[in-house]
């Protein structure tokens, strides 16, 4: 798994979108056993923190110590630095295994072998994430142009899985049909710019070119935003769930 998120991990925790409450409510309805859950690729721990409200214990892993240092805390969350593909967890431990906005970085075959090893009978694997941001008819084309034409060549090849809505990832499990969810939040322009600066392609661009392309985008967006104003931003939730 590639680690592009150890640098500026505090910004990742501050600016990345959260997940909607109805998504967690849905997970609660389909997971009858709530003893142990594994949040794999936990990042800032936001998924672990929500699951900790209903599961007895959450084991949350990431390859970035820096991410875990900034993760949300709860008494029943155990954080550890471990790769997704090889952990020290016991066999048949987890009733739910969840990966949020991370599986595209994994070695699918090795990770799925670890999923099968550590899952209880009839456990669920939940793969989720979020698609590209939607704001307004004026703003969306500007961000889309930036995404494709300014930093498009700087995205890692794995990004295609998100662009394809996770529909093309290997998923060798008994998949269940899921509802559609959207994540809607109120953001300032400064929050949006903070989020865009966490994109891995932006980091690659800066490293190769010596300047931040988001600054020019920021100036273009100001015309449509307004000083200090908040706008509704929408992220479609990517979701695949299977019985292990």
Structure characterization notes:
- This protein is of the alpha/beta class and 244 residues long.
- The protein has a domain of 163 residues: Rossmann fold.
- Strands 1, 2, 3, 4, 5, 6, 7 and 8 form an eight-stranded mixed sheet that branches.
- α1 packs across α8 and α6 runs antiparallel to α10.
- The radius of gyration is 18 Å and the shape is globular.
What's the helix and strand layout?
Elements: H1 9-15, H2 21-30, E1 36-40, H3 46-51, E2 57-62, H4 65-69, E3 77-81, E4 94-100, H5 108-118, E5 119-130, H6 139-150, H7 160-163, E6 174-176, E7 182-188, H8 189-196, H9 200-209, H10 214-225, E8 230-243
Parallel strand pairs: 1-2, 1-4, 2-3, 4-5
Antiparallel strand pairs: 5-8, 6-8, 7-8
Helix pairs in contact: 1-8, 6-10
InterPro entries: Methyltransf_11, SAM-dependent_MTases_sf
GO molecular function: S-adenosylmethionine-dependent methyltransferase activity
Domain Methyltransferase type: 39-126
């Amino acid at each position: 798994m590639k680690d592009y998120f150890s640098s500026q991990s505090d910004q990742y925790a501050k600016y990345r979108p959260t997940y909607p409450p109805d998504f967690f409510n849905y997970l609660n309805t389909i997971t009858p056993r709530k003893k142990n859950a594994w949040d794999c690729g936990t990042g800032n721990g936001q998924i672990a923190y929500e699951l900790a409200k209903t599961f007895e214990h959450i084991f949350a892993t990431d390859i970035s110590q820096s991410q875990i240092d900034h993760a949300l805390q709860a008494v029943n969350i155990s954080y550890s630095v471990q790769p997704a593909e090889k952990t020290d967890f016991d066999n048949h431990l987890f009733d739910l295994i969840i990966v949020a906005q991370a599986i595209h970085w994994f070695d699918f075959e090795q990770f799925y072998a670890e999923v099968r090893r550590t899952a209880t009978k009839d456990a669920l694997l939940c793969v989720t994430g979020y698609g590209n941001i939607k704001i307004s008819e004026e703003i969306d084309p500007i961000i889309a142009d930036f995404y494709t034409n300014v930093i498009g060549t700087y995205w890692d090849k794995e990004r295609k899985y998100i662009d394809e809505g996770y529909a093309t990832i290997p998923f060798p499990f008994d998949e269940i049909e899921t509802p559609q969810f959207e994540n809607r939040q109120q953001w300032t322009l400064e929050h949006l710019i903070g989020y865009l600066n966490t994109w891995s392609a932006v980091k690659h661009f800066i490293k190769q070119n010596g300047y931040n392309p988001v600054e020019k985008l920021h100036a273009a967006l100001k015309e449509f935003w307004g000083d200090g104003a908040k706008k509704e931003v929408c992220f479609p939730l990517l979701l695949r769930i299977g019985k292990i």
